[in-house]
Amino acid sequence: AQSVTQLDSQVPVFEEAPVELRCNYSSSVSVYLFWYVQYPNQGLQLLLKYLSGSTLVKGINGFEAEFNKSQTSFHLRKPSVHISDTAEYFCAVSDPILTGGGNKLTFGTGTQLKVEL
Amino acid sequence: EPEVTQTPSHQVTQMGQEVILRCVPISNHLYFYWYRQILGQKVEFLVSFYNNEISEKSEIFDDQFSVERPDGSNFTLKIRSTKLEDSAMYFCASRAGPVHYNSPLHFGNGTRLTVT
Asked: Are A89 and A35 a contacting pair, CB within 8 Å?
């Protein structure tokens, strides 16, 4: 079974400061990894994903994440945050082997990023 | 850009009542999902649907839940007899193909279900 751990439930940060949101996963097989963002009263929007290839993945809105297999981590980073980045961020994992379920996602508990002036 | 649309955005129902949550996935998508998020908790997988049948379901998806794609465009989630603990945000999602085809999962904005 797969699981995702997001240790930080809230991360406050000042505008223009860098931020890192941590994500660790456990799985007995290789995985696909994702970061989703949820703005208030909205659905989940894909920020970036790792399927294979380069371990440094760049996504939308200036975010990037690095897949580290030895540490089973997929931390999300942004060098300079903006007020508009205030949202809930979810890390998720999926099994790359196609199952009848069409690769369901297993989510972490989320990290609330609050950007302050 | 095509979107997954869900209606209603908020539904209030009494315990024991049946409720149907509606979703219109993106038109050329083949895989359909329901997830839910209880307030303050993580997003949880409920069920996936492909080729007109359930392909996987979680432990949450018991006999009180059912899904249907009645007309080739809508994808519904029915809860037969709602319980207080069914109160949550329910997200519909769809994708064109399997994830290893680099096919992203698109989520709707959710239906907030409140059971009183």
From this structure: yes
Domain that holds residue B90: 5-98+105-115
A110 touches chain B (CB under 8 A): yes
Query: Is B82 exposed, middle or buried, given 0-12, 13-18 or 19+ CB atoms closer than 10 A?
Result: buried
The domain containing residue A29 runs over which residues? 3-116
Domain at B15, CATH number: 2.60.40.10
**pLDDT band (50, 70, 90) for residue A18:** very high
Is A96 an 8 Å CB contact of chain B? yes
Q: Which residue has the tokens 């997200």?
A: B91
Inter-chain residue contact A106 with B45, CB threshold 8 Å: yes
Q: What is the pLDDT of residues B3-40, one digit of tens each?
A: 899 999 999 999 999 999 999 999 989 999 999 999 88
Query: In chain B, how many domains are there?
Result: 1
A107:B42 CB<8 A? yes
